[in-house]
Design a protein that fits this description.
The complex is a heterodimer of chains A (346) and B (148). In chain A, 40% of the residues lie in helices and 16% in strands. Chain A has 346 residues and is an alpha/beta fold. Chain A has 2 domains: 283 residues, Divalent-metal-dependent TIM barrel enzymes (TIM Barrel); 56 residues, no CATH class. In chain A, the strands form 2 sheets. In chain A, strands 6-5-4-3-2-1-10-7 form an 8-stranded parallel sheet. In chain A, β8 and β9 form a beta hairpin. The longest helix of chain A is centred in the N-terminal third of the chain and has 18 residues. Chain A is globular and about 60 Å long. The mean pLDDT of chain A is 96. Chain B contains 2 helices and 11 strands; from the N terminus they run βββββββαβββαβ. The mean pLDDT of chain B is 94. Classes of the chains: A alpha/beta (346), B mainly beta (148).
Chain lengths: 346, 148
């Protein structure tokens, strides 16, 4: 039983977009740069000709995994409900798409698929026989603003009852006894401060340059978690609602909430926006917005066995600028794994 | 996302047909972190030097097939625009663009989303214009490009 390290190739989306890395380069980085073995992909980013890849691609995929001794963890899929254009995708059709992803995951060697947040029980039920037949599990992502504990006030996104979706799925798992349904919690539900990437972007793009300068200076004085409240206190009304959002944050779930669902957690998305050096500890890094230490403590205490796959996404807040200002994803993921190794106790 | 990198540098060109210049074209990428089923792509907000060119004047070339209107693209529910692939946008404009520098403003319409949303039926009945789709783009992107 152990916490293992992996990477979702989502983390290198910018390098892929710019033609700097393909999945083989990423696989090599996992083995040689990070010394980890877990690999997760986005179906519509990595698989050419999705959802029907060529046999040549599948052979090259398996060859690449063999070459770098990697273990496929999760295949991430989507539910684009407007795709048919003449009607909204029905739940039965959604289940058909899930079945295609289950088959693809099976062909690529993944143990589970990560589906959309709040996947309705009816869709799971329809796709479950295929999951069991192929022995590939269905895990939906618990992504902000969805909590683990029920909160029926959350409405109007993903599905009919997003606020209680976790409890609904747990009820289904317990009622049926299935081993093929669970969750992929995203670390973004365990917030402790706003993402630095958003704060940087706000400061850079604010038309009120005087205020931008003041916020920048204030960051030296107050903890990141209090920045938004302090800005509002000192300069009330100077930021519009959209700008305020860059400084706001919410703890959607407490780390110990994980214990309610841990047997059904198949892997975890190790979200990161900015990995920054811990003051006074050269070479050690942290994600100032997220509660990694507390979450990993809960996982260790409960002997959880599975992969945390890095999902770096801070890069996109800097892409309105020239190529020289972009974040280096490879370096950011390496920092993330320094942190993971240290917290796991490898 | 990818605000500075959506349009390929040096790709803005006039398009000739039967000896006449009938419009212009440029190359684009899907400015998300994934590709999409083609039917989700609804076209572009495009302005050149302040003149707006609506979706009806646009065609889209991908997957080695001839340029298609966005009405045709809407029917391609199984064909995929892979994340790595450049596509070409064709815009009808008799006479094309003059030689020299032009300012292109662009916003890509892709109805990609994360599951069911309250606006689903409304968007099926009345598809939003590219600018009305709140995607990962922060606003209209502007590029200074040259027609040689």
């Amino acid at each position: 039983m152990a916490i293992k390290r992996g990477v979702s190739l989502y983390s290198y989306q910018q390098a892929q977009f710019l033609g700097q890395m393909d999945y083989r380069d990423m696989a090599r980085e996992l083995r040689e740069g990070l010394d980890c073995d877990g690999i997760e992909i986005i179906n519509e980013a990595t698989v050419p000709g999705y959802p029907f890849p060529s046999r040549e691609f599948l052979a090259d995929w398996h060859n690449t995994l063999a070459r770098y001794d990697l273990t496929p963890v999760a295949l991430d899929g989507f539910l684009d409900t407007l795709r048919f254009r003449d009607h909204v995708m029905t739940k039965a059709e959604a289940a058909e798409l899930i079945k295609l992803d289950l088959q693809l995951a099976h062909d690529m060697g993944f143990t589970h698929i990560r589906t959309m947040t709040g996947l309705p029980v009816e869709v799971i039920e329809r796709a479950l026989p295929t999951a069991e037949k192929l022995d590939v599990k269905i895990a939906w992502e618990i992504h902000a603003p969805i909590p683990i504990k029920p909160d029926p006030t959350i409405q109007g996104l993903y599905c009919e009852s997003p606020g209680t979706a976790v409890a609904d799925t747990v009820e289904f798992i317990e009622k049926t006894g299935t081993k093929h349904v669970g969750f992929v919690p995203d670390m973004g539900i365990f917030m402790r401060a706003p993402y630095l990437s958003g704060v940087h972007r706000l400061i850079r793009t604010l038309e009120d340059r005087e205020l931008a300068e003041q916020i920048s200076e204030l960051m030296e004085e107050v903890p990141l978690s209090e920045l938004g409240a302090e800005v509002e206190k000192r300069w009330p009304g100077r930021l519009n609602p959209q700008q305020k959002r860059a400084l706001s944050w919410k703890m959607h779930a407490a780390p110990e909430d994980l214990e309610l669902i841990l047997p059904y957690v198949f892997s975890i998305h190790g979200k990161a926006h900015n990995m920054v050096e811990i003051p006074g500890k050269p070479g050690q890094y942290e994600e100032p917005a997220l509660m990694y230490a507390e979450v990993i403590e809960v996982l260790k205490k409960n002997d959880w066995d599975g992969y945390i796959c890095t999902e770096f996404e801070g890069q996109r807040a800097y892409q309105d600028r020239g190529i020289e200002h972009l974040l280096d994803e490879v370096e950011q993921v390496r920092r993330h794994h320094e942190m993971l190794k240290r917290l796991i106790g490898e | 996302m990818f605000e500075s990198f959506l349009v390929r540098e040096g790709s803005l060109q006039n398009v000739e047909k039967d000896g006449f210049i009938v419009g212009f074209k440029f190359d684009v990428r899907n400015c998300d972190y994934r590709g999409c089923f083609l039917s989700l792509h609804t076209g572009y907000y495009i302005e050149v030097d302040g003149e707006v060119f609506p979706v009806e004047l646009q065609k889209f070339e991908i997957n080695g097939k001839p340029p298609r209107s966005f009405d045709e693209i809407a029917k391609c529910v199984w064909e995929h625009w892979d994340f790595d692939d450049w596509a070409t946008v064709y815009v009808q404009k008799p006479g094309g663009l003059s030689k020299g520098k032009h300012r292109l403003g662009i916003y890509q319409g892709v109805m990609a989303q994360y599951g069911w949303m309250p606006h689903d039926q409304e968007w099926i009945d009345n598809p939003p214009s590219p600018l009305e789709i709140r995607g990962k783009q922060t606003g209209i992107y502007y590029y200074d490009l040259e027609v040689e």
